[in-house]
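step: validate -> pass
step: tokenize input -> pass
step: predict -> running
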Amino acid sequence: MHGNIIYGADGQPQTRVATRIIPRYYPCYVFDVSQTDGKPLPELAPELTGDVHRFEQYFEAIKACSPFPVSIENFAGTTKGVCDLATQSIRIKPNMGQTQTLKTLIHETAHALLHFPRQRPGTSIVLPKKWKRKALLLSSVFAR
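step: predict -> pass
step: emit ->
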């Protein structure tokens, strides 16, 4: 019973000793995968390949759903796309396959919709859950 004090026969509050384990982090040695040998590690998410029928129409349709402008441009890092909330823009790396480009655009558009809900005239702010459903629906339509 939390919050209720239990009194003993002597009228004093009863107490007990409790031990609590608190996880802690400590420095330790680590290794880099380049220092190992053996079979290569499996890829978590290999890049998608392949062409998409009516790629340009799909690209423009997804782009139209985005609350941010979309550009194809090089940028630093290994990510394939960036949804920049500070500049309210989406950047997609060039020279990827059509399937990977559409997947990346859907992913970054979902970020924009989830993390930057728009307010429509005469409505309250649209909840992120609604935008998530829209993004999932959008990706399932284009997956057909």
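step: describe -> The CA atoms of residues 3 and 34 lie 55 Å apart.
step: cleanup -> pass
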